[in-house]
Amino acid sequence: MKDGSAREALLRQADCSASPDNFRSTHSRVYARAAENCDQDSQFNSRFDLAPRLPEILADIADIMSRRASRGKVADYIKPLANVDPAKFGIAVTLVNNMHYSAGDAEECFSIQSVSKVFSLTLALGKAGDALWKRVGRESSGNAFNSIVQLEYERGIPRNPFINSGAITVADVLLSSHQPKETIGEIVRFVRFLANDESIAIDPVVAVAEKETGFRNEALANYMKSFGNIKNAPAHVLGVYYHHCAIAMSCKQLAVAGGFLASGGVNPVTGLSVVSPERARRINSLMLTCGLYDGSGDYAFRVGLPSKSGVGGGVLAIVPGIASIAVWSPGLNAQGNSKLGVEALEILSGRVGWSIF
């Protein structure tokens, strides 16, 4: 955003606790906050000592993934995603000291799909605060991301904001103060700000395809409407939801956009405060427990990082106090998560000791 007042207004929507002083944060403050988030400064410094090795490590991981015979299955129920080359693989790392590393197809844009739920949730928390949790839970569902089963038992309250029903409710919160087009624009502007990149946009072909095949999402929205948990017209809410899922980004852009969650709420590139450290921790906690749907527990066991996946094959992973990682491989496993993306993050986490456990 070129206009300073508009940028500050958007940031205040993301975190109502933001103050003018926060907008004048410097990169040194980002680095200091990241160090505070680690148990010991020595641990923080030792983890950054490996930075010169990251290009070699990432290149090796990309090479390993290129030789994998089993790559998963692309999401064929959304036509544009069905045509993506399953051999694609990219990985990018943004450290909180504003260093960037990547390998493979890290500059190629892909549909981030449900990874966008991290950004819509951040904005919704800025608008509604803790009142949001009266409409969305904070527990892992244990069911598929588009399941309707638990909504009946729990009277229209989604288990968490990262399954489809939860993200649709979040979209309803964002829509409550805008028209649909304005809400979509607000989300895109926020993602552009986080990534420090004005070129990021919605793929209109994907957005249309989402609507054409969104029968289950229509059922979810209307069912929640029957319980009074959707306030706006379901068609308008779903329009917002489909469009933010259709945002296209590269691994490099996505790693930068997630950087504020790694650096205590501060954007590591611009030095601007996005959310409070407490809110960043809470979003990370939800990503750890709910970010990979009914595969979240196994992923926490294998990788040990707060993460959010999407059926476009992307995964955003956060190393609190250290780094934001984005990986993309279109083939999915049985839970709808990137098969090779998860495997790559397991290798990376193991090699550099980035698991939070």
Please describe what this structure looks like.
With 357 residues, the protein is α+β, with helices and mostly antiparallel strands. The chain has a single domain (4-352), classed as DD-peptidase/beta-lactamase superfamily (Beta-lactamase), CATH 3.40.710. Helix content is 48%, strand content 9%. It has 17 helices and 8 strands. The strands form 2 sheets. Strands 2-1-8-7-6 form a 5-stranded antiparallel β-sheet, with helices on both faces. A hairpin with a 4-residue loop joins β1 and β2. Mean pLDDT is 89; it is low at 16-44. This is Glutaminase. Substrate binds at residues 114, 164, 210, 217, 241, 293, 311. Keywords: Acetylation, Hydrolase. InterPro entries: Beta-lactam/transpept-like, Glutaminase.
Shape: globular
The top level CATH class name:
Alpha Beta
CATH superfamily: DD-peptidase/beta-lactamase superfamily
Topology as H/E string?
HHHHHEEEHHHHEHHHEHHHHEEEH
The count of domains is 1
Low-confidence stretches: 16-44
- Span between N and C termini? 38 Å
| Portion of residues within helices | 40-55%
Tally of strands: 8
Count every helix, treating DSSP H or I runs of 4 or more residues as helices. 17
Give the tags.
5-stranded antiparallel beta sheet; 17 helices; about 350 residues; about 50% helix; alpha+beta; 3-stranded antiparallel beta sheet; Beta-lactamase; about 10% strand; acetylation; globular; 8 strands
Provide a short characterization of the protein structure.
The chain is an alpha+beta fold. Helix content is 48%, strand content 9%. It contains 17 helices and eight strands.
